[in-house]
Design brief:
Elements (H helix, E strand, L loop, with lengths): L1 H12 L2 E4 L1 H16 L11 E5 L26 H8 L3 E6 L33 H8 L5 E6 L5 H7 L2 E4 L19 E6 L2 H11 L19 H9 L9 E5 L9 H16 L3 E5 L7 H16 L18 H12 L2 H13 L6 H21 L7 E5 L15 H6 L5 H6 L3 E9 L9 E8 L5 H11 L1
Parallel strand pairs: 2-3, 2-4, 7-8, 7-9
Antiparallel strand pairs: 1-3, 4-6, 5-6, 5-10, 9-11, 10-11
Helix pairs in contact: 4-5, 6-15, 7-15, 9-11, 9-12
This protein binds glutamine.
């Protein structure tokens, strides 16, 4: 059924870079056989999923949206993928993305742009735009994305689905093609909070292959949802304190987004929560710090694509220098090159203290401020918009990188702080305001480190 949906829809939406129908059907039959043999399987068995194309899948091409990996077929599964495979999940294919996760609209894919299923003239967000569009267009039941500075959450907002960026270290990064290793997280994108919880339960937990993964035991995120709700009666969020982040409201935010988040605050109150405005004075410093740190890490991580050890090799090179520059010149796209240049500059001798070190200091401030706001006796979660606007038109920002970067203001601090954040659909931009088509709006709830269960509980009650 999902393969039929892909055949019907994907020539328009372009969610997938690779579809592997034969493999999907073989996996589905294998699940049938296990059930027929009397095995009791978990909730992910037989569930057709899409996987972002920067997450390695054994035997299935994994490009990270880049030409330099156009022929890369991993010989191993990312840990998140091998866990899902073990649980009997079915993999439909690999989804489109901004090259190496560098972008906010999926227009930086070197393969093709993905279109927003709500309006094909608009972007699905990014960089996990393919995963978000595939879920929204019912081309998969749910998907994995990755989030370095908002790449799960902003496309979830643009496409009207649920997206969860887990705490840094909650899900192993082994087999995730690196963008900025201190910020990268794999997480679920789904139709409902319950689906996201099931998927998180399938991928979370420590991993000896990733030294930054946490050994804290993962909990059964889905099982806790219904009991939490039942216990609260008609006011399931009684006693919960939610902080509405003052710096993310008002000026610079589209009126429909501001209104939707304020309406969400009232809905949370009707469920028993207390919503109060909180101020995070260093909030605006996060974005420039993020772009210094993410690009610095990227410039280092991407140095491996030299055409020798990794990446497609330039065919014509006469000597070693030409081999490096030819392979990288031909294989990497414009935005990736821009970021490697900026990151290399920020790490250069003489500039390191002014940019990289300073950005690290800002990162610490931003983190301390958020963690304090989420401290005991203060907020259980922080509420904000996901982005200043709903989905914009294809091409609208692609020639203005700075405008594109500014759209990440409300998501990047969460990665700097390593915290978990959940995006939930919460309303629409009315059709009249946006040229005839209703566009989805999401809200963002940021939680305490490793409290994905609490965050999902809030989302489940909200839904
Ligand atoms: N849009 C942000 C960037 O381009 C975040 C991307 C991401 O989370 N992968 O860096």
């Amino acid at each position: 059924q999902y393969l039929d949906a892909i055949a019907k829809t994907d020539s328009t939406v372009c969610s997938y870079i690779t579809v592997d129908g034969e493999q999907a059907l073989a996996q589905a039959r294998a699940v049938d056989a296990r059930i027929a043999a009397g095995e009791t399987l978990g909730p992910l068995a037989g569930v057709p999923l899409a996987i972002k194309d920067n997450i390695c899948t054994s035997g299935t091409r994994t490009t990270a949206g880049s030409q330099i990996l156009r022929d890369y077929v991993p010989t191993f599964d990312a840990t998140a993928v091998s866990r899902l495979r073990g649980a009997g999940a079915v993999f439909l294919g690999k989804t489109n993305m901004d090259e190496f996760g560098m972008g906010s609209s999926t227009e930086n894919s070197s393969y093709k742009p993905t279109r927003n299923p709500w309006d094909a003239e608009r972007v699905p967000g990014g960089s996990s735009g393919g995963s978000a569009a595939a879920v929204a267009a019912h081309e998969c039941a749910a998907a994995l994305g990755s989030d370095t500075g908002g790449s799960i959450r902003q496309p979830a907002h643009f496409c009207g689905i649920v997206g969860l960026k887990p705490t840094y270290g909650r899900v192993s990064r082994y087999g995730l093609i690196s963008y900025a290793s201190s910020l990268d997280c794999i997480g679920p994108m789904a139709h409902t909070v319950e689906d996201a919880a099931l998927l998180l339960g399938g991928i979370a937990g420590g991993d000896s292959h990733d030294a930054t993964s946490s050994g804290r035991p993962a909990v059964d995120y889905a099982a806790g949802l219904a009991s939490g709700l039942a216990a609260g009666g008609s006011r399931p969020l009684a006693g919960k304190r939610i902080g509405l982040v003052a710096q993310t409201m008002g000026e610079g935010v589209a009126p429909a987004i501001d209104a939707a988040v304020r309406a969400a605050a009232r809905h949370l109150e009707s469920l028993g929560a207390t919503v109060e405005e909180v101020s995070l004075p260093t909030f605006g410093q996060g974005l420039p710090a993020y772009y210094v740190l993410a690009l610095s890490e990227a410039s280092s991580n991407l140095s491996r694509y030299d055409g020798v050890r990794y990446g497609a090799r330039s065919p014509a090179a006469a000597d070693l220098a030409a081999l490096f520059s030819g392979s990288r010149g031909e294989g990497l796209g414009g935005e990736v090159k821009r970021r490697i240049l900026m990151g290399t500059y920020a790490l250069s001798a003489g500039y390191y203290d002014a940019y990289y070190k300073r950005a690290q200091q800002v990162r610490t401030l931003v983190q301390q401020e958020m963690v304090a706001a989420l401290g005991a006796g203060r907020c259980d979660a922080l509420l904000s918009p996901v982005a200043p606007s709903a989905a914009y038109r294809l091409g609208e920002k692609s020639s203005d990188p700075l405008a594109m970067y500014k759209g990440d203001l409300m998501t990047v601090n969460v990665n700097l702080a390593g915290l978990p954040a959940l995006v939930l659909p919460t309303g629409f931009v009315p059709a009249s305001a946006e040229g005839g088509v209703e566009l989805p709006i999401g809200l963002q709830l940021v939680g305490r480190a490793f409290d994905e269960a609490g965050l999902l509980g809030l989302g489940y009650a909200y839904e």
